[in-house]
Amino acid sequence: MREALRGLTTRGRSFLAAAAAALIASLILGERDLLRVAVLLAALPLLSAAYVGRTRYRLSCSRTLDPHRVQVGASARVILRLQNLSRLPTGTMLLEDRLPYALGSRPRLVLEKLGAHQASSVAYTVRADVRGRYEVGPLVVRLTDPFGLCELTRAFPSVDRLTVIPQVVPLPSVRLAGEFAGSGESRARSVAVHGEDDAATREYRYGDDLRRVHWRSTARTGELMVRREEQPWESRATVVLDTRAGAHRGEGPTASFEWAVSAAASIAVHLRHAGYKMRLVTDAGVDVDATEIDGDGPLLDQLADVRPAQRGDIGTLIERVRRRNDGGLIIGIFGLLSAAEAELLAGFRVNNATCVALFVDSSTWLNLPTAAREEADRSYGVAALALLRSGWRVVEVPHGAKLPALWPQAGRGSQGFAWRAASAESVAGGVR
Description:
InterPro entries: DUF58. There is one protein chain. This protein is α/β, with parallel strands linked by helices. It has four domains: 2-54; 59-165, Immunoglobulin-like (Sandwich), CATH 2.60.40.10; 196-227, no CATH class; 233-431, Rossmann fold (3-Layer(aba) Sandwich). Helices cover 35% and strands 25% of the residues. α9 (339-348) links the parallel β17 and β18. α2 packs antiparallel against α3, α9 runs parallel beside α10 (370-389) and α10 crosses α13. It is elongated, with a radius of gyration of 34 Å. The chain starts with a helix and ends with a helix.
């Protein structure tokens, strides 16, 4: 009751003040009718406080998020269900669910009175344009009486978490040579797919059947090579995301970093659904073997938390990939690279592995003066040429590019881009 009295509204306190004034006037003037008025004025807010206070601790609340995981730009529905556990009806209730700024303003919903043991549900919609994990709640319920004389606030401590994952776009099917690696499950992709000349071979070991000698490989390597008759093949791919803050430009949902994260999510999901044993690596500490998890959700949850790394380093990224690399296709989404960083990546490609670089020209996310634009284009071209010369397939990613339109270039490369990169280096050499 004491706390209920503290919840009196301005109207309720005004009633008490009027009651006190009427009481004093009745004593001074000796009017008993004023005393009755004073009692009535005082009784109304006190009874309202008792009424509201009685129902305060007899409410239960539950919250449902539909769904718990949404893509950037999508909406989720929040359903609140309140039940009156007491025998007395409640007054009108004002509901306010606490939300982080990224999910919009706090919703305020009015729920009419609930009868004895009655339940009712209200719903609202949230939308997030920024990746992350957000807490929804706690719910604040304001209880009031029909006259608006008393208002009490109750907060339900429970919260739910909404995960906003990167946008995943469907990609066309593209043949990516070099994705097969030995060991693992036996698959129907074997010598018959690549032809006899591409049969898997290894060095001759003592005791091997001489009928398994592969003479073409022996002639090419100068060492006795034997065929692996039942080579288990599996499609392996590693998606590498460059999270260096200095390599990206722009802010908010339209930044080049967000494009790169969305591309990594889309490619990873596409390859998983195509049957690849997929791994995701970033220089911010993420190293996920997608073969060890069920569904795409846990993988996308990792990307929901990725942030630009202020101390990111290409050397660290390469080291993370090498730590558990067992062959297969490597697809990197890189921001701006210096010539030295491009050379590090060029040296990373070994054993004729197929490496595809989606090279984000994040300088195009800025409006640069003419001279600065020419210098940025030259630096970009020099780095791209270093990758091209080492055997990387380089896909140019300017501002406004759509990943589904760029994805086919991962299978065939971009000859026109190679010519432009070579021209940029020749111009840069002339300037020097």
